[in-house]
Design goal:
Length: 447
């Protein structure tokens, strides 16, 4: 019962991610209000810190072509933006279109409106009001890429899958192969083959992770309005998202080098790959919502541990099913291969429980930061997708428990491991769906 309690906690913890998005909490003038004279500035207050260098505000009056408002700056609090409004903007129905990025770099946009009864006079010495851009109006008809677009969801899914595989290959080497070698020393050769296969798999995943970083940058620029040089500079060098992006690219290359050294029979490559795996987990956390919370340091640390724990579970299982067990099955004499498979499972299962417990604790911490009420689970799109992910994680955990409690004893009795491989493949398939649900979930606003 103790193990089942940990498993249930892990399901709840893993299913509550530390991702969400910036939301507009209030504005001056307020939405749907009526003001006598056109305001000299707009004040927008959000639920978390926003970066003025990555923020953009446009104004439309009575549905006319939109006008970019220049000079966006931070207010007295890091959650507030002050947007100057030039004199001479006509009276009428003002629609304010905003697009901001939090400290995590996630772009979010929205619109609100209020009515202005009279135009604010233009001082005699003021420059004439610039004409609204017809090009901006033309862009209005195009369908913009957002964080919820299929292309962005696919890029996140590839990033998550590659990250999970890289970390899983390192965890398989240190947490499974070493203790399994101690249990079955006669099959050390098969363990070496499995380690080499894990390195090759990790090398391919590291390459995909690096390429995914390049795609993410292009998509990020699209969601924020295009490849403007100033925007690119601010995004890469003046935001936490930029730090995370550089770190992901650098650690992906470092992992690629480490795994390649292993393939070239240099055992020191595993140490390089292990350092890279830690950096990859940190990079993921710096571009998550945890980086924009009030408890950023603690949130990022917990999220990095969460990433390592989940990757250590599903990623290690992927490597074990993909290269570990096949290497053992190819080993002769055949009389020893089933006991070696059992040794792999025996080494993996207790460590998977520990990683599940860590995932539960860190996931619960993230949930307490971002889930306001239990009812939000079924009353919001975010909560509904969270429940879908919860069900998938529960299914994966159930299959893992079945493999450990039912399939391993059969291996110890000498039963061929084909049924274990099928069950592990089913668990991995559900894990793929978990990653897909996560890729969709991070694009949805929290309650």
């Amino acid at each position: 019962m103790r193990h089942w309690g940990i498993a249930v906690a892990a399901v709840l913890g893993i299913a509550l991610p530390m991702y969400a998005h910036t939301q507009l909490e209030s504005s001056e003038p307020a939405a749907d209000s009526v003001v006598d004279v056109g305001p000299a500035e707009l004040r927008l207050t959000f639920n978390e810190r926003v970066d003025p260098d990555l923020s953009e505000v446009r104004l439309l009056v009575d549905g006319a072509a939109e006008q970019m408002l220049e000079g966006v700056k931070q207010g007295s609090a890091p959650v507030e933006l002050i947007v100057p409004v030039p004199a001479g903007v006509p009276a009428g129905e003002w629609s304010v279109k905003w697009r901001v990025a939090g400290a995590d770099g996630h772009p979010v946009s929205g619109t609100y409106a209020f009515r202005v009864e009279a135009q604010r006079p233009v001082p005699a010495e003021a420059e004439p009001l610039p004409e609204p851009s017809s090009q901006a109006a033309a862009v209005e008809d195009e369908e913009p890429i957002t964080v919820s677009s299929p292309a962005y969801v696919a890029a996140r899914w590839i990033t998550f899958a590659a990250m999970l595989t890289v970390i899983g290959a390192v965890a398989f080497r240190y947490l499974v192969l070493h203790p399994a070698r101690m249990r079955a020393p006669a099959l050390a050769g098969a363990m070496d083959v499995a380690a080499m296969g894990a390195a090759r798999l990790g090398r391919g995943a590291a390459l995909f992770l690096f390429l995914a970083a390049a795609v993410r940058l292009l998509l990020q620029l699209e969601t924020m309005g295009g490849a403007d040089p100033e925007l690119l500079r601010n995004l890469l060098f003046a935001s936490t998202w930029g730090i995370a992006w550089f770190l992901q690219g650098a650690t992906a290359l470092l992992a690629l080098l480490g795994f390649h050294l292993v393939v070239m029979t240099l055992a020191s490559g595993w140490t390089v790959a292990a350092v890279a795996a830690l950096g990859i987990a940190l990079a993921s956390s710096l571009s998550s919502h945890a980086a924009a919370s009030d408890l950023a340091t603690l949130g990022v640390t917990a999220d990095a541990l969460h990433t390592l724990a989940v990757s250590g579970w599903l990623g290690t299982l992927l490597v074990m099913a993909g290269v570990g067990i096949p290497a053992v099955l190819r080993e002769d004499p055949r009389s020893g291969r089933f006991s070696a498979t059992s040794a792999l499972v025996s080494a993996f299962s207790p460590r998977a429980l520990i990683m599940a417990a860590v995932a539960a604790l860190t996931g619960t911490f993230g949930a307490l930061l971002h889930i306001p009420t239990v009812a939000s689970l079924w009353q919001t799109s975010y909560g509904q997708m969270l429940l879908v992910k919860l069900a998938l994680v529960a299914a994966a955990a159930g299959l893992g428990a079945w493999n450990w409690r039912r399939m391993k004893p059969r291996l110890d009795e000498g039963e061929p491991p084909e049924r274990l491989r099928r069950s592990a493949a089913a668990e991995l398939f559900v894990g793929v769906l978990v990653l897909l649900a996560t890729a969709i979930l991070v694009a949805l606003p929290t309650p």
